[in-house]
């Protein structure tokens, strides 16, 4: 099974839209066709793509980029700003509103049309500006961690984001790089790529320059091309970019599998809430219109009133509020050195209740030191060191910290050693071989996972260089030496050789192949110290306290991993090795998950399998890793987390990038994610209760009043003021107790909240209507003015109750929120008193002083009622909060 069949979260290209027709195939229309970039000679391909080995010029690259679009199969196409702006007018409510007010302008005065048009414009501009600013902030964060490629422009090698590549670009690749697009090899040395993302094949595939290659039945097998989404395991290459973005094989595969990434819980929840409100709105509008027609009121005014009500009811700012909240959260995380690549990951990280992590760099310092190189009985072995050194020096794969430790341990004279070939490292066999010539003799020098190295050896070479047979007793001795190292917390690599004169097979060979890694002469161990991080234990305990179970998933062996746990003071509750994992069923694995917190000798496919099993249990799972071997798991996780120095594929697959490899910052991200969800929830609860209640009462009032309870313009103005005040919600403080556990979006809570607090607000509204009519003997204008002021005052101030589950004065609101809401109240009260008859435009009159006495008493009564209802509400629904699953 390939990765794409299992999960396609991060590799989905946008479907071609009408506005962005698929650009002409990169490799022109001449024959052979565009799909066979492995068939033509390189020189013809270069000519057809109108490029040369020195690369495109900057101007050429710019025009090609404009033609073919960004090289990005995963990202949604960016909509131009003017369209983002205009799209906001596609809202049918806005269209009806503008038409109806236009018609009324023709028949009556132009004033109301102008006012409505201005209010609509203000609302749209406000929404647009906030939204675009938030998106820009996030885009620049994302750009700061984009994967770069070395490309030749104007004849010099420069580094550009891979999204900026176009057909015809010439790119240089080294080990660890992500192949940015489907490309033809122009030059290569010892090039091996991992194509697991395309083919599911875990072993490195060798690629080399040739004029033509066959690839009809299996394009991934074509040896002279490399494909987008694969990564370089070892060697170097210069490539010609041929097919970018969604035209790459990966892009095509992804398009044919699914059009869109699956919506997250959060997105679904938001959509469901909007639908809920829409249904209420439709019913209400039909009702209001029917009543007005039945009472024979002016049709046009009735329509305007109904539509204004609908505008007031719809949470049209919700998408913007969500974006602003998440973007603000992303900015906060950036300060804590966490860069958010996918905005919706903020919600997922807040909901995460299991975090899987690899070991090196997160639980350990990643300052690996080579302590000794010993033979099987523990004696210092210069021989084994020389094999290890030569192996590390000559291998062209991604330099692992182990290689760096070997090379920096002490100088070694490489004179006389000549590299013939290598079999690069991969995470399945966990070893690397180089074929070397020295003194006219050839030999294979191998290093890798120690237990496998011992198993594959037939003879044994001690520190003095004497080669002996490897009988069962000696094997057991060597194993005991290895176990001793592990128990002391040392990491070890096994070292072996296979000299040309030892078997005929290697005598004159010029190729290193993995099948030669057998019948070897075991030479000893390289012993490393990778000290555990002092802070790791406390960090893990903090995460567990926050409801996030931490599990170690590592390619290293059990003894070493157990030792790390012991050092950082975290108990091992259960162990599963890769070997055992391969023998158990899906059900058995899921059954073992809750108590297992250590998975060792796990290969990349197994990491992926573990992640899927955790998801299948219903947990929200994060994965933290930095290697090529972690990419499949990063794709599969709900939240993929990587670090700045990670391999390109890992960074490309991740949703969050840590600028420092520290588990503690994950804890910060979790808290920020939860706070963001809480603030979005506040906005939704406001909309679902007080705003909803007000509009509902207004509809009811049309039944009993001989005139409209509020003029359409006033409703729109009310809505604008309310919306502007609520834009402070993303910046509000969050009560600490609401973020101690993972939070999932809870639509049930919102529905119940609406059913309780809508009516609470309505009861109070009808009391106000009664007072206006029978106490103040209000006529039309005074009634509308009074109701306008009350409506804003109560709608905005209630945020101080709804924002917290505590008694309102026990929780400190954000300053911005306080200022904005008090300002909204001041504006509402001040409007009718404005000079130059401004209030009159909106149909306001100045209310008598006694009204304000009533306003204060009534508002306090309302807030008191909400506060009591709130305490009761949460007392009876407190059992519904999601608890941390282990
Ligand atoms: N450069 C190398 N040469 C030979 N063998 C290696 C090399 N790097 C790693 N190995 C072997 O492969 C195993 C798995 O690699 P590695 O430890 O990097 O996996 P991992 O899952 O990323 O582990 P971690 O959780 O520590 O990051 C190692 O334990 C070691 O035995
Ligand atoms: Mg690793």
TrEMBL record:
Pfam families, A to Z: Cation_ATPase, Cation_ATPase_C, Cation_ATPase_N, E1-E2_ATPase
GO molecular function, one term: P-type magnesium transporter activity
Keywords for the protein's UniProt record, in alphabetical order: ATP-binding, Cell inner membrane, Cell membrane, Magnesium, Membrane, Nucleotide-binding, Phosphoprotein, Translocase, Transmembrane, Transmembrane helix
Subcellular localization(s) per the UniProt record: Cell inner membrane
Top EC class, one word: translocase
Protein's membrane topology: Multi-pass membrane protein
TM ranges: 93-126, 276-296, 302-327, 753-776, 782-802, 822-844, 850-873
Gene Ontology CC terms: plasma membrane
Record's keyword annotation contains Transmembrane: yes
PROSITE patterns: ATPASE_E1_E2
Catalytic activity: Mg(2+)(out) + ATP + H2O = Mg(2+)(in) + ADP + phosphate + H(+)
EC number, UniProt record: 7.2.2.14
UniProt key word Disulfide bond: no
Family annotation (SMART domains): Cation_ATPase_N
Domain Cation-transporting P-type ATPase N-terminal residue range list: 36-109
Purpose of the protein: Mediates magnesium influx to the cytosol.
Family membership noted in the UniProt record: Belongs to the cation transport ATPase (P-type) (TC 3.A.3) family. Type IIIB subfamily.
Protein name (record): Magnesium-transporting ATPase, P-type 1
Organism: Roseiarcus fermentans
């Amino acid at each position: 099974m390939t990765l794409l069949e299992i999960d396609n979260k991060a590799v989905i290209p946008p479907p071609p839209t009408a506005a962005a027709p698929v650009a002409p195939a990169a490799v022109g229309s001449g024959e052979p066709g565009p799909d066979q970039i492995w068939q033509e000679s390189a020189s013809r391909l270069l000519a057809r793509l109108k490029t040369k080995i020195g690369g495109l010029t900057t101007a050429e690259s710019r025009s090609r980029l404009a033609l073919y679009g960004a090289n990005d199969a995963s990202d949604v196409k960016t909509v131009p700003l003017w369209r983002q702006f205009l799209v906001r007018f596609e809202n049918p409510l806005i269209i009806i509103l503008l038409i109806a007010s236009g018609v009324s302008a023709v028949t009556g005065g132009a004033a109301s049309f102008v006012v409505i048009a201005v209010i609509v414009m203000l609302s749209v501009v406000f929404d647009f500006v906030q939204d675009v600013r938030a998106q820009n902030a996030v885009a620049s964060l994302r750009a700061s961690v984009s994967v770069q490629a070395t490309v030749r422009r104007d004849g010099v090698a420069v580094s550009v984001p891979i999204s900026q590549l176009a057909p015809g670009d010439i790119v240089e690749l080294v080990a660890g790089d992500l192949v940015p697009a489907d490309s033809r090899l122009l030059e290569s040395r010892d090039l091996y790529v991992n194509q697991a993302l395309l083919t599911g094949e875990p072993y490195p595939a060798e690629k080399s320059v040739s004029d033509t290659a066959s690839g009809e039945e299996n394009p991934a097998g074509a040896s002279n091309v490399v494909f987008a989404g694969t990564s370089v395991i070892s060697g170097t290459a210069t490539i010609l970019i041929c097919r970018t973005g969604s035209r790459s094989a990966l892009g095509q595969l992804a398009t044919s599998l699914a059009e869109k990434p699956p919506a997250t819980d959060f997105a679904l929840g938001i959509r469901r809430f909007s639908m809920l409100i829409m249904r209420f709105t439709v019913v209400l509008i039909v009702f209001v219109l029917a009543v007005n027609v039945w009472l024979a009121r002016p049709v046009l005014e009735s329509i305007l009133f109904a539509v204004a009500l609908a505008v007031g009811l719809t949470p049209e700012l919700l998408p913007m509020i969500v974006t602003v909240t998440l973007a603000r959260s992303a900015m906060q995380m950036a300060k804590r050195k966490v860069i958010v690549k996918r905005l919706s990951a903020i919600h997922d990280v807040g909901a995460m209740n299991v975090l899987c992590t690899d070991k090196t760099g997160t639980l350990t310092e990643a300052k690996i030191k080579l302590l000794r190189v010993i033979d099987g009985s523990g004696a210092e072995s210069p021989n084994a060191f020389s094999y290890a050194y030569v192996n590390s020096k000559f291998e062209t794969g991604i330099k692992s910290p182990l290689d760096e430790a070997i090379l920096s341990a002490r100088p070694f004279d490489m004179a006389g050693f000549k590299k013939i070939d290598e079999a690069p490292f991969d995470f399945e066999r966990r070893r690397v071989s180089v074929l070397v010539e020295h003194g006219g003799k050839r030999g294979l020098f191998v290093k890798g996972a120690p237990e496998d190295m011992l198993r594959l050896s037939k003879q044994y070479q001690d520190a003095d260089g004497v080669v002996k047979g490897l009988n069962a007793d000696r094997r057991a001795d060597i194993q005991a030496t290895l176990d001793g190292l592990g128990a002391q917390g040392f990491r070890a690599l096994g070292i072996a050789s296979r000299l040309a004169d030892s078997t005929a097979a290697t005598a004159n060979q010029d190729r290193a192949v993995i099948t030669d890694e057998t019948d070897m002469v075991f030479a000893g161990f390289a012993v490393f110290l990778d000290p555990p991080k002092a802070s790791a234990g406390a960090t893990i305990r903090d995460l567990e306290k926050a409801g996030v179970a931490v599990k170690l998933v590592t390619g290293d062996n059990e003894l070493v991993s157990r030792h790390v746990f012991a050092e950082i003071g975290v108990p091992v509750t259960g162990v599963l090795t890769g070997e055992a994992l391969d023998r158990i069923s899906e059900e058995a694995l899921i059954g073992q998950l809750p108590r297992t917190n250590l998975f060792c000798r796990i290969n990349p496919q197994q990491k992926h399998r573990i992640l899927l099993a955790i998801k299948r249990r219903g947990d929200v799972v994060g994965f933290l890793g930095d290697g090529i071997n972690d990419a499949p798991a990063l794709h599969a996780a709900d939240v993929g987390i990587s670090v700045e120095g990670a391999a390109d594929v890992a960074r490309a697959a991740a949703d969050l990038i840590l600028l420092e490899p520290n588990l503690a910052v994950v804890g910060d991200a979790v808290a920020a994610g939860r706070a963001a969800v809480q603030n979005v929830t506040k906005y939704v609860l406001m909309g679902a209760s007080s705003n909803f209640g007000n509009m509902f009462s207004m509809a009811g009032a049309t039944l009993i009043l001989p005139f409209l309870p509020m003029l359409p313009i006033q409703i729109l103005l009310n809505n604008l003021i309310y919306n502007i005040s609520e834009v402070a919600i993303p910046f509000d403080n969050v009560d600490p107790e609401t973020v101690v556990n993972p939070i999932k979006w809870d639509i049930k809570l919102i529905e119940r909240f609406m059913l309780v607090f809508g009516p609470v607000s309505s009861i109070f509204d009808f009391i106000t209507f009664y007072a206006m009519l029978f106490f103040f003997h209000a006529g039309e204008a005074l009634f509308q003015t009074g109701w306008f002021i009350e409506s804003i005052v109560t709608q905005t101030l209630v945020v101080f109750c709804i924002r917290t589950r505590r008694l309102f004065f026990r929780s400190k609101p954000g300053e911005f929120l306080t200022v904005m809401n008090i300002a909204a109240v001041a504006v509402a009260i001040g409007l009718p008193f404005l000079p130059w008859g401004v209030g009159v435009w909106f149909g306001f009159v100045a209310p008598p002083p006694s009204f304000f006495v009533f306003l204060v008493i009534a508002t306090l009564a309302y807030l008191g009622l909400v506060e009591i209802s709130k305490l009761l509400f949460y007392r009876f629904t407190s059992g519904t909060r999601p608890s941390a699953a282990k």
